[in-house]
Structures are given as C-alpha cells and as structure tokens.
Design a protein that fits this description.
Number of strands: 12
Helix content: 40-55%
Strand order of the largest sheet: 1-2-7-4
Strand content: 5-15%
Distance between the termini: 48 Å
Shape: globular
Radius of gyration: 22 Å
C-alpha cells in the first residue's frame, strides 16, 4: 500500500503506518519520549500481563528493569555451559540422522533445542524436547495453532481471557488442540507459587523470577498469574516458530509431563533456520564462514561464546538472516501519549502532524526490503553488506528499537552464533564427496522460507514442510 500511496498511510481509522527507513527513530524513540501501546495489542499476544503487552510507558519500564540483568552480556555468558549441553545433544541427534540417511525437518530440531535452553535458563529445568523422538512436535503444533488465533483475539476484546480461563473439560470438547498450552499455563502458575513458598532461600536463584521477586515492584506486580504471563512470553519467544500452521497432533503423555514452558528471543529458531537455508543455498558465503571459523582456530570440541561473538562474518550472517526473516511479522505499534509526531514527506515536502495517542507503526519486513535503505538487491542474502557498510544498522529493526526493543536480543545473537559454529565446524555442503555434509532437500525459498502469512510470527505457504535437510555423516 505504501508503495502506491506514499511513505505514510492511514491503514485503519485509528492507525498511521510509515514505510520510511529514515523515520525509524521518531516512531521508536529513546528514553527522551514516552511510548505506549494500544490495548488491542495486549489482547493479540495472549500474554496480557507481560512486558511486551504492557500498555503504559512507565509501568513497562518498572516491569522491565528487574529483568534486564537476566539478559545482560554477563548473564548470557554464564549460560554458556547450558547452551553447550543442549547444542551437543542437537549435534548428536543430527549425527544419528546422518547415519540413518533420513531427511530432517531441521526447524523441529532448532525449536526443541531453543526451547530446552530458554526453559532451563528461565526455570532451572526443562522438558528435554531435544531427546524426544519427534522433538516435542505435539507441543509446538499447539503453539502454532494458538498463534493462528491471534487476529481473532485482537478483534474480540476479552476473548483471549476466556480462552485461557475456560474450564479444562470444556476446552477438551471445544478446542482440544490447546490442551498442551493449558497444561503449560497451569504449570507456570504452580511453579511460581512453588518458588515463592519454598523454604529454600536459593529456590529462585537460578530462575527468571528472582529479579522480579527481589525487586521493589508492588505486590500486585508479583502475583503468580503476572509472573506466569512473563514466563510464557519468554519461552514462546525463545522457541520461535516455522513450518506453517499445522493440524493438531496427539501424543500419549504421562501426567507428570503435562507441564507448560511458555515472545523474548522470538527470532531464535525461525531466524536460525533461515540462516542455515541461505548458507546452504549460497556456497560462497558458506565457504567464507567456514574459513573464518578455521582461521579463528575454533575447536569443534570446545567452542566458546567469547570466540564466536567476535567473528565479523558470522555476526553479519546472523544480522542478514534476521533482516530477511525477522521473527516478528506483526506491525510494531506505538503511541506517543504526550507529543505529536511531525513528518515531512521527502518527495512532496508535505508536512503531516500526527496527534498524541494515535497508534503508529512500521513493519520490519517492509523496512528491511526498502531499496532506500538496502539497495536494489534488498531481497538477496548478502552478509557482506554489513561489513562493507556498518551504518546500515540504523535501518535495522529486527529486534525492534527504542525503549521497548527486544530484551533478549543478546541471548538470541549468542545462541544463533553458537549453533552455527557448532554445525559448520563439523559439516560442509554436500558436493558428492564423502564426509559430514548437509544438503537442501526439496526446499524452496518462496514456499518454505519466506513468510506467506502473518500471525504475529511469520508462517510459510500452506502445505510447506519448512526447511528439509539431507544429513550425511
């Protein structure tokens, strides 16, 4: 629409949308200007009490501050041993698949691994999806189906509340595919209560709840339901989603496994999948990455975060992967409660004054594909662009921008860097030779990798199996 009507368009009676890369910092400002969110956005996410859905600027700041240390560079570095444990399990599963000659839908592997890492980090325990034969697909398909309802939640205020609080017996009859999510929700609430009431003073030490429970937030901000909503956001985000909205899948489970793990590193599994696709589809870029890993003397048996975080081409691969395939497809909405936004169309020189409390937005994919920012080859995967022109980062909103940017982007980048280093320290692109290799299998970018639908998260075309890989070990 913006390409036809211009860079500023009223897309609903109450929302102004920009497609101008030079206006990013006005829509997503720093601490000098307050930014709120509209009520309907909180309804869409299904996590109405979490930081991403918090409407008021000041309340968002108060809620976010206790979580910031949990996702600092130092805290992420302390997660290295946990990350290595589950990435090693991922590699073992890939090796088994290589020996059996099976074709792997790799996004299932990445989601399982990402979920185990973020859940272990947040709760001190996880479901070990990476060890399950089907990588926990019974749960992830329920999550995908939940996201397919988010547009309805946004249009029908209060519906998400009823969906999350409907009696379980009625949920089994009306929407049984959501039972795994209800189990998870119940688990979070009970887990928070367990940690709060534990006689062990260290019970919360290794969980995300410690920062909140020890903070100066008032009691109403520390309720079990509020903390469970925050947990849901974090785990949803850490898992990401790919491979389309699937039909519900049933699985016989022991009652003790009916646990709920939970949008922070919302890009993780999705963007990692897309990075892998592009590297296997771009042999020259893959060779550059493998040469960089080799020159850095990366030991495949002992890869550490400090090494991979500082590799320029690996960082550029991740930046380019997130640019082309951001984990959040939804418009990033904001409201300026006090000040108007003033915009001048660079072509017509016409000035627009947007009144306070108007919903304003941008789309990360629109901005990332804009030729004004990324040139005529914006659709092309070209990591070198970030090394040739570091100033391009001012046009990057893959982790949002301003005071409400993604709190977990440091964790996301580090985990993606570690995962790619683990994979390509061992595997090469299959070219007919023996040895550990990976090969794309019946995967097309437009059908299986590019977004076809927006359910907050990106969803590929109907019938897509996602990224399929033939592993040879």
């Amino acid at each position: 629409m913006c390409s036809v009507e211009g860079p500023i368009v009223r897309i609903t009676p109450h929302e102004i949308h920009w497609n101008d890369p030079d206006y990013i910092d006005s829509v997503y400002p720093g601490p000098s200007r307050k930014t709120n969110k509209p009520v309907w956005f909180a309804e869409r996410t299904g996590t109405p009490h979490s930081i991403v859905s918090t409407i008021d600027h000041d309340l968002h700041r108060h809620r976010r501050n206790p979580l910031n240390p949990f996702f600092s560079v130092a805290s992420v570095r302390r997660l290295e041993s946990v990350m290595k444990t589950y990435l090693a399990k991922m590699m073992t599963r890939m090796e088994r698949s290589g020996k059996s000659g099976e074709v792997v839908q790799i996004h299932h592997v990445f989601k399982a691994c990402a979920s185990d890492i973020i859940t272990q980090y947040a709760f001190g325990e996880c479901l070990n999806f990476i060890d399950e034969r089907d990588y926990g697909r019974w749960y992830f398909q329920a999550t995908d189906l939940f996201f397919s309802l988010t547009h309805i939640f946004g249009l029908a205020p209060g519906l998400v509340h009823h969906a999350q609080n409907i009696p379980k017996w009625l949920l089994k009859i009306s929407a049984s595919f959501l039972i795994p999510l209800r189990d998870r929700q119940d688990y979070w609430i009970s887990k928070v209560g367990e940690i709060r009431e534990s006689p062990d003073p260290d019970a919360a030490e290794s969980t995300i709840f410690k920062g909140i429970l020890d903070s100066s937030l008032p009691a109403e901000e520390k309720t079990d339901i509020r903390l469970a909503s925050e947990a849901q956001l974090i785990v949803f985000a850490g898992e990401g989603t790919t491979g389309g909205i699937s039909k519900p899948m049933t699985r016989a489970r022991d009652p003790s496994e009916s646990v709920d793990m939970g949008l922070i590193v919302i890009h993780l599994a999705h963007s990692l999948t897309c990075c892998l696709f592009h590297l296997l589809d771009s042999p020259d870029d893959l060779q550059k990455l493998k040469s960089e890993l080799s020159q850095a003397k990366i030991d495949p048996g002992n890869i550490n975060m400090a090494q991979v975080d500082n590799l320029p081409f690996l960082s550029a691969v991740i930046q380019e992967g997130v640019r082309l395939h951001p984990g959040v497809m939804a418009r990033q909405v904001r409201m300026s409660p006090k000040e108007p936004l003033i915009y001048e169309d660079p072509q017509t020189r016409k000035q627009y004054v947007v009144p306070p409390n108007t919903v304003t937005s941008m789309s990360s994919l629109d901005i990332h594909m804009h030729p004004k920012a990324f040139g005529a080859d914006a659709y092309q995967f070209r990591p070198q662009r970030w090394i040739d022109n570091p100033n391009l980062s001012r046009y990057f909103i893959g982790f949002s921008r301003g005071t409400r940017n993604c709190i977990g982007m440091t964790l996301a980048r580090s985990e993606m860097a570690m995962a790619l280093a683990f994979i390509f320290s061992k595997y090469d692109l299959y070219c007919g030779l023996e040895g550990p290799t990976l090969e794309l299998y019946q995967t097309e970018r437009k059908r299986d990798i590019d977004p076809n639908m927006d359910y907050i998260i990106p969803v590929p075309a109907k019938g897509s199996k996602g990224l399929q890989i033939k592993i040879r070990d």
